[in-house]
Amino acid sequence: MADPYISRKEARSSWRPYNALMSPGLKRAREPFRIRNAVTGILIASFAVGVWAYSISAVKQDVFDDVDEEARSLRSARIKSLEDQEAVRTLEKEATRGVVAVEPPIAPQVQEQTAPTLPIPSTSGGLATAGRGLLPMLLDQQFPRLLDPSSKTLVWGAPPVDRIGKMKDP
């Protein structure tokens, strides 16, 4: 048998000399794309860093005096409101000390009667009605097959706008 043009030992060692490294053929195939991939990676990374820097600078606040003042005013308002509530309680206790509580009379419950509702008469008597408004009239004259023949609307099978129902209603 003829000897191969390259020895088996050299071919085996050049295919994948180490598990973590690429083969020389794969390195040669990736060579034309290294610069383009590096530039693309740098652009994406710089965009991400720019977005991060902008967001940090947009919310940056060096002086927090206004927050401290607001916290102090809220705390003093809460203390004042607690003092006011305590004063109201003591006044109520003093006012109700000698008074006997009397329950107010209960009024009898009255049932509300509603007037019976009348059904809205339907305008469609089985024949095609002239649609409401100016647009259906003009469209029906120019393009007679464009409108729904039963309701004279652009959307075929649409329910009437006078009776808004549920999706499962016919």
Quick overview:
This protein has helices spanning 8-15, 24-30, 34-59, 65-95, 134-142. By secondary structure, it is mostly helical. The protein has a domain at 1-63.
What does this structure look like?
The structure is a single chain. The chain has a domain of 63 residues. The protein is flat, with a radius of gyration of 43 Å. The chain contains 5 helices and no strands. The model has no long low-confidence stretch (mean pLDDT 77). The chain is mainly α and 170 residues long. One of its GO terms (cellular component) is mitochondrial inner membrane. This is Cytochrome c oxidase assembly factor 3. Component of 250-400 kDa complexes called cytochrome oxidase assembly intermediates or COA complexes. It comes from Sparassis crispa.
List keywords for this structure.
170 residues, mainly alpha, 5 helices
State the helical fraction. Answer: 40-55%
What gyration radius follows from the Cα positions, in whole Å?
43 Å
> Separation of termini?
86 Å
Shape: flat
Total helices: the number is 5
Query: Sheet bearing the most strands, described?
Result: none
Strand content: under 5%
Which structural category fits the helices and strands?
A: mainly alpha
Subunit structure: Component of 250-400 kDa complexes called cytochrome oxidase assembly intermediates or COA complexes.
InterPro entries: Coa3, Coa3_CC
Domain Cytochrome c oxidase assembly factor 3 mitochondrial coiled-coil: 25-71
Protein name: Cytochrome c oxidase assembly factor 3
